[in-house]
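User:
Can I borrow your eye for a moment on a structure tokenisation matter? Would you put together a sequence-and-structure record for a protein of your own picking? Please set it down just below, with no commentary around it:
AI:
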Amino acid sequence: MTPEERPLYEIVEKLEAAWNRGDSVAWTELFADDADFIHVLGGHFHGKTDIEHGHRTIFDTIYKGSRNSFEVEGVRFVRPDVAVVFIFANLTWYLNGAEQHIQARPTLVAERDPDGSWKIVVFQNTLVTTDAVPTLADTLAQAHPIKGNPPVK
């Protein structure tokens, strides 16, 4: 990790800590006011209010008591003030009392403010599927309170 990358790793560390506390407010503080968030099932949240509400919903329901572990796989600077951060996530959650495990590859785009602080402007979460667990995506989709519906036109 380079000194330039360190603040981006810190964002990921703060995201993990907020998730593991079930703290939707702390989670959302890392985002720009007009951020876009695509969740693991393809649903789209726009703005901090929607992102916080969506995470409050999942922290109170499907992911209550869950534990997430994030590993930064890489950082790519598009410009000195814009970076893409590739993450690997391991989530442990519970469905009807049974422990479940899923993996995802969140990708975030962060922008540095003029004051030097970084904020997430885009977050895309992609479920990792394997042949060993072919029904996991269906199980998750059925249990998840927020679906990934296509946009209404």
